[in-house]
Amino acid sequence: MRLLPIPALLLVLLSACKGEPSFEERYSEAEATISEQAQSIESDLGQPGAPAPGATP
Questions:
Q1: Looking at CB atoms within 10 Å, which of 5, 23, 30, 54 has the fewest?
Q2: Nearest to 28 by CA among 17, 36, 40
Q3: What's 53's DSSP letter?
Q4: Eight-state DSSP code of residue 29
């Protein structure tokens, strides 16, 4: 009777495992990350003709 809970516990643990994300999920996540980084870089650059802070003429 003590062996019955062990297989049941193993089944519960296996069913709780999350599968690997699909290609579409990974692509969407990477696209969002890249888009955020691009926006951050663009805002850091500011105006294209403006000198960088601390730059000497």
A1: 54
A2: 36
A3: T
A4: H
Q: Around Cβ 23, how many Cβ atoms within 10 Å?
A: 8
Query: pLDDT confidence of 5, banded at 50, 70, 90?
Result: confident
Query: CA separation (Å) from 54 to 16, 42, 43?
Result: 54, 18, 17
Tokens for 5?
A: 């809970």
* Backbone CA torsion sign across 10, 15, 21, 23: positive
Average pLDDT of the residues in 6-30: 82
Task: State the residue for tokens 């500011």.
Answer: 46
